[in-house]
Design brief:
Helix content: 40-55%
Number of domains: 3
Number of helices: 27
Shape: globular
Length: 765
């Protein structure tokens, strides 16, 4: 296509970029930070991505995270986003991974969401099967849909949960590719949908990925049903069929993401998210009163600093007032039924977002694989906002030919509905009149915008300019309501700015661990600075056994605490973390002090007495017994060998020959059969060798690892993290990528493709 025909599209994408920069003015102008209070962006994602960038630049594939929680899978934790291509590019160009790099990733994915929605609507509104007048006439309606989607409530609410934003940004791209694949019966477009879905899955948010996959699957089923009951397929539409194309999409999506998905599936049963009870899974449901948030985000207070609603703060679905007006004006009798599908998808998303307030979510929890591991049903409002944004583009596109009587009836009805819903919701939620001014402002703005939308539809002479004016008004609406919500003038990285204490800890011979007892020290700082911590910020995918062990430690200085190799404790200035066995050793940092735990046990221990237990419950009871001492006894599960009753006489020695997160070697000299016990979290991907011979790794002390040394003498014990799940997933991903590249090469070199290229070149001249 000649470049001049692309100018409107390029201008539209540039316009979306400009509005994105305006929305994120603190980042653009360097005058502040996002999000307010740091959120997951500062506390979890920044140190996580920093750990990945540092490991990759060191030439190491970070399959294991030795920095937090006494070790845990890293790549298998889907939140790491390790294999997401955009992350890999960022790590390549920014090895130190400053916080600004993460902020700009958020900014970019907002734009990506808008660009994808624009592309989808250009496809839908200019589709050969749709009743369109002009390709150029769809530019402004597509822009309108893009703005409504990219600044909708899920995106605004989760500026601090970047991985949610990153996955959601790919939804319109995936649907556009699948639509073209099914509409044109082109395997290439169906494969493209699979590549997009697989890429989105790598961004690292399971719930959003499930939504994307569900939306694509529902669309494919809808197209199949629609073609069977409403259409007679043309005779020239030969295979591949819609079912085969859809299967191709999901097969490629799985292949692209297999290196991350298969390890994640292996990890899930070892976390607290293996299965949630329904009450837990339904937490953070959208309340009925929250539907008023579709008309105004102000009446319950927007953002973490201003929300006052009598429920847990969730997404309320605001995407602007004008999209609500134009969405109902979409041509629901259009051929191919896309608008009907969007209406159904939006209704489904709304009912699922209501969670425990409707039976839909409970049915999904009981029937759909993966639902029992997910919380926060309110996030499904994304599908409702996506559908409303797309339908609004349809409605705005047909505004010039719309009967004024229908627009007047809908506008009046929507005005009454908005006033009724907002008033009832506020009166039932507010226990006082403290927020009355915000309520009145929200009602005023909503009513004003609805009246403006009605005027655009009714004034016939202005309909030519209505789409452009609607875009401007929507931009003012969503930016004015959202740009201030997560802006902050307080640096969210202050908890990482403890350079003198960090330097002291980094200079200590290791391996050793620290414990954080300081508010001035970020919980995940160890991951950012190459240190090792026994804990970290809350992670829903923590290994369940280790988390249970950690929760049961009690006071600092107990035997179970000392077993974790906690040599140093970081504490706030002049605030000792425990008793006199914790000695201050560093006080040169202005905000924190570092204490030495004089009773800390080494990372590896030779234990000569074993207590065999049948399962985890018995192991936990054994280590919690008052007389249990992990320095002299180990509780082992399963078919583990018995051991003697105490330490024998004779020389013994124990030291690391080499140490790394995924591989290390220990030299042990034991005068009698013994267990080599490591205060490293147990996980099935670890393998062990004693003097070159493979040996089993036993679950020890409920959550840790042990190797049995049957023969006295000096031994080399090697441990490596080599999860079979990753090997299988990586092979599948590599085969998929090679297959796609080979297919692309064949398509590019085919005579038909070369003829089309020559034809396009001829048109261009």
């Amino acid at each position: 296509m000649p470049l001049r025909r692309r100018v409107p599209d390029l201008a539209a994408l540039a316009f979306l970029a400009l509005l994105t920069l305006i929305f994120f003015w603190p980042v653009t102008l360097g005058l502040g930070w996002i999000p307010r209070g740091g959120g997951d962006l500062a506390s979890f994602l920044w140190p996580t991505y920093s750990y990945a960038a540092r490991a990759l630049w060191a030439g190491r594939l970070p399959l294991w995270n030795n920095a937090l929680f006494s070790g845990a899978p890293f790549a298998a934790d889907n939140q790491s986003g390790l294999f997401y291509p955009i992350h890999l590019l960022t790590f390549l160009f920014s090895p130190s991974f400053p916080y600004t790099a993460l902020e700009w990733l958020v900014v970019f994915h907002f734009w990506l969401a808008g660009a994808g929605m624009y592309a989808l609507m250009r496809v839908l509104l200019t589709d050969a099967m749709s009743p369109v007048v002009s390709r150029r006439s769809s530019v402004r309606p597509a822009l309108f849909s893009a703005l409504a989607y990219m600044f909708s409530d899920v995106f605004i609410t989760h500026i601090g949960n970047y991985n949610i934003v990153a996955v959601a940004a790919w939804l319109p791209w995936a649907l556009a590719c699948l639509h073209l694949g099914l509409e044109r019966r082109r395997a290439g477009w169906a494969a493209g949908a699979g590549v997009v879905l697989g890429t989105a899955a790598l961004a690292g948010q399971a719930q959003m990925t499930l939504m994307l996959a569900g939306a694509l699957g529902l669309y494919a089923l809808f197209r199949l049903a629609y073609s069977v009951f409403r259409e007679r397929p043309p005779a020239n539409r030969a295979p591949p069929s819609g079912l085969l194309l859809t299967a191709l999409t999901f097969l490629i999506a799985f292949g692209i993401s297999a290196a991350a998905v298969i390890p994640a599936l292996e990890m899930l049963p070892h976390t607290a998210r293996a299965r949630l009870d329904y009450a837990t899974a339904a937490q953070y449901s959208l309340p009925w009163a929250g539907l008023a948030g579709l008309f105004s985000p102000l009446i319950f207070g927007r953002g973490p600093a201003f929300f006052w609603g009598p429920w847990e703060r969730v997404e309320l679905g605001y995407l602007g007032v004008l999209p609500l007006f134009f969405a109902a004006l979409a041509p629901f009798r259009a051929r191919r039924g896309v608008t009907l599908f969007l209406a159904g998808l939006g209704l489904f998303g709304l009912l699922a977002a209501l969670g425990l307030n409707t039976p839909v979510h409970r049915l999904l929890y009981s029937v759909v694989p993966g639902f029992a591991q997910l919380r926060v049903p309110a996030r499904f409002i994304l599908l409702a906002d996506f559908s409303l944004a797309a339908l609004a583009g349809y409605g705005l596109h047909r505004l010039a030919s719309l009967p004024r009587r229908g627009a007047l009836a809908w506008g009046g009805g929507l005005l009454v509905l908005a006033l009724s819903v907002m008033t009832v919701a506020y009166q039932r939620s507010a226990a006082d009149r403290l927020h009355l001014a915000d309520f009145r402002l929200g009602v005023f703005i909503a009513v004003t915008l609805l009246l403006v939308g009605l005027a655009l539809a009714l004034v016939k002479t202005g309909r030519r300019f209505a789409p452009g004016l609607a875009v401007v008004l929507l931009a003012a609406d969503v930016i004015g309501h959202g740009a201030w919500v997560e802006a902050d003038r307080v640096d969210p990285t202050l908890g990482y700015q403890r350079s003198t204490a960090v330097a002291f800890l980094q200079s200590q011979p290791g391996p050793t661990r620290l414990d954080n007892a300081a508010a001035a020290w970020a919980p995940d700082a160890a991951a950012r600075f190459g240190l090792e911590d026994i804990a970290g910020v809350y992670n829903p995918l923590n290994l369940a056994r280790y988390q249970t062990y950690l929760d049961g430690l009690g006071a600092r200085g107990t035997p179970l605490y000392n077993f974790l190799n906690v040599q140093f404790v970081v504490s706030d200035k002049d605030r000792p973390p425990a008793d006199a066995t914790f000695v201050p050793v560093f006080n040169e940092d202005p905000a924190v002090d570092v204490y030495l735990n004089t009773n800390a046990l080494p990372r590896v221990t030779l234990v000569y007495a074993a207590q065999k237990v049948r399962d985890g419950e018995a192991a936990f009871a054994a280590i919690r017994a008052p007389d249990f001492d992990p320095a002299s006894t180990v509780a082992v599960e399963g078919d583990a060998p018995a051991a003697g009753g105490g330490a024998p006489t004779g020389a013994s020695n124990l030291y690391y020959l080499k140490y790394g997160p995924e591989a290390y070697t220990v030299v042990a000299q034991n005068p009698a059969p013994a267990y080599l016990v490591l205060s490293e979290a147990w996980y099935p991907g670890w393998r062990a060798w004693v003097d070159g011979a493979p040996v089993p790794i036993y679950l020890a002390d409920f959550a840790f690892r042990a190797v049995y040394l049957a023969a006295p003498g000096e031994h080399q014990i090697e441990m490596r993290f080599e999860p079979l799940s990753f090997k299988i997933g990586a092979v599948i991903t590599v085969i998929t990528l090679i297959g796609l590249l080979g297919w692309l090469a064949v398509k590019v070199r085919s005579p038909q493709s070369q003829a089309q290229s020559r034809q396009a070149a001829g048109h261009g001249t």
